[in-house]
Design brief:
heterodimer; A: mainly alpha; MetI-like fold; flat; B: MetI-like fold; 9 helices; Glutamate transport system permease protein (chain B)
């Protein structure tokens, strides 16, 4: 372990204690894992009758892969849409005009306070009234709700990205004769966008996770596909594990990309790159600079 | 307009909207309590010098944080209750409620852990070095110098986690807690589509009223207690 705030470099006695703790911790961890496996086995949950269908081609070809495609489709539309929405409202909150700033502020704060699921349910109902002929209402509701929520988060990222820049950046722009708006667009925003790129990749994790909420309004995404599989095969624990593993792999990959980006980009901007925390919360933490 | 409002008012009574919000507040309270305990333990594991504990903590956080909460909630009902036949209470209602609380807690514990860890990370190394230099050993240094600063740094992220937990308590809908807000709103909209906007405005406003004070309070606290560096 590198230098830490809490611990000194260990001497021989501390090293012996650490080693003993390490062995004990490993034994306990393995013990818990074995106990869980024994319990699962006792309930018959490890039998191949239940796990076999999870690995069958039929399950993936007809259910899980089409579900995954729908999940990714909703996430892709949502992330592009929320980027546009976030840029617009982020700039609105930085506007020189107080009314614009105020309206954008109230709208963004409202969207951040309302649970995504409530928005999905509302838009599903709304599209049922407005677009009676459209068959893909659940998809639309999922995408619109995700855009509004994540867009408002990105709007905050834009605002904090600009706020985190050293003051001299804007002042230098003004000194060379740019107006406030020009300095924002040609000096502050480009650097802020670079700084928030990692946080936006982390935001895709949030979008992917929240797209699974679509299941509640009947959108045929990955979790819904899994539910159809286990209601036929009677193996909910196994199928849900497989579905979760797919999500975890995708999200871990995205997190790694975000982390690499943040390291790569730190020389490209005057602000510290932001990394999201993956819970959809609006205040991204400055990565790397304060550790 | 008056007809609309009085119609909406009678809906509020018929569907027990206040009761639904009370359910979400209870889900949030118990979920937050368990998540705080579990998350603190995980954070201690992740900052300890013992490699195997660090590994366990990191694995837990990386798995739980990257799983959609909807899957965890579905798993609590279909995996833990249906498949493993683990029952947390005698009646259906409190069983689903407790399963949902556990689901919320295990998910948000990962974020509590990361919040506390980021609080520890805000303390500069020089603080520990200065503590050693004036002769404090591990426990006094942790108690007097490091942890007070770490807790202050953790307030803002912990507040965000609490807000997320409150909003995420609606996902209890996926754990068959059908009397909470999202499910109540869904039923109300299905049977009274002409009150669509009013119903949504009411529930959205309820969450705004609940969320904004938490946000204001934690921002105020974290700024008031912020360590000037």
């Amino acid at each position: 372990m590198s230098a830490s705030v809490l611990f000194d470099a260990p001497g021989p006695r501390a090293r012996a204690w650490t080693f003993a703790g390490n062995v004990l911790g490993a034994v306990v961890a393995i013990g818990v894992a074995v106990w869980v496996l024994i319990q699962l086995n006792a309930k018959g949950q490890l039998s191949w009758d239940l796990w076999g269908p999870v690995f069958s081609t039929r399950t993936w070809q007809y259910y899980l892969l089409p579900g995954l495609v729908n999940t990714l489709r909703a996430a892709a539309f949502a992330i592009v849409g929320s980027l546009v929405f976030g840029l617009l409202f982020g700039m609105g909150r930085l506007s020189q005009l107080a009314p614009v700033r105020w309206v954008c502020g109230v709208f963004v704060e409202f969207l951040r306070a309302v649970p995504v699921l409530l928005m999905m349910v509302f838009f599903y109902g709304l599209f049922g009234v407005l677009l009676p002929g459209v068959s893909d209402k659940a998809f639309l509701a999922v995408v619109v709700a995700l855009i509004l929520y994540n867009g408002s988060v990105i709007a905050e990222l834009v605002r904090s990205g600009v706020g985190n820049l050293p003051r001299g950046q804007r002042e230098a722009g003004l000194v060379v004769g740019l107006t406030e708006g020009q300095a924002l667009r040609s000096i502050q925003l480009p650097q802020a966008l670079v700084a928030m790129l990692p946080a936006m990749v982390s935001q895709i994790v949030v979008v992917l996770k929240d797209s699974a909420l679509g299941q509640i309004i009947g959108y045929q995404e990955l979790l819904r596909a899994g539910q159809i599989v286990y209601s036929g095969d009677g193996n909910p624990l196994q199928v849900l594990t497989a579905v979760a593993v797919v999500f975890i792999l995708l999200n871990v990959l995205l997190t790694v990309v975000a982390h690499r980006l943040s390291k790569l980009l730190s020389s490209r901007t005057a602000a510290a790159p932001l990394e999201g925390t993956g819970i959809g919360n609006p205040t991204a933490v400055a990565g790397g600079s304060r550790v | 307009m008056n007809d609309y409002l009085s119609g909406l008012g009678s809906l509020v009574e018929r569907y027990d909207v206040l009761g639904a919000f009370w359910t979400n507040i209870q889900l949030t309270f118990w979920g937050a309590l368990i998540a705080l305990v579990l998350g603190t333990v995980l954070a201690l594991m992740r900052i300890s010098p013992i490699a195997s504990l660090r590994w366990v903590g990191a694995t837990y956080v990386n798995i739980l944080r990257n799983t959609p909460l909807t899957i965890i909630m579905t798993f609590m009902v279909m995996g833990v209750w249906t498949a493993l036949q683990l029952q947390l209470a005698d009646t259906f209602e409190s069983n689903f409620f407790r399963l949902a609380v556990v689901g919320l807690a295990v998910y948000h514990a990962a974020f509590v852990c990361e919040s506390i860890r980021s609080g520890v990370n805000t303390v500069p190394l020089g603080q520990a070095e200065a503590a050693r230099a004036i002769g404090l050993s591990f426990l006094p240094a942790a108690r007097l110098i490091i942890l007070p600063q770490a807790f202050r740094g953790a307030i803002a992220p912990l507040g965000n986690t609490l807000i997320a937990l409150l909003k995420n308590s609606t996902v209890a809908a996926a754990a068959s807690v059908s009397w909470e807000t999202a499910s109540t709103m869904k039923t109300m909209i299905e049977f009274n589509p002409n009150y669509l906007w009013g119903i949504f405005a009411m529930f959205a406003l309820g969450y705004v009223i609940l969320v904004i004070p938490i946000g204001v309070l934690t921002t105020w606290l974290s700024q008031r207690l912020a360590v000037q560096r």
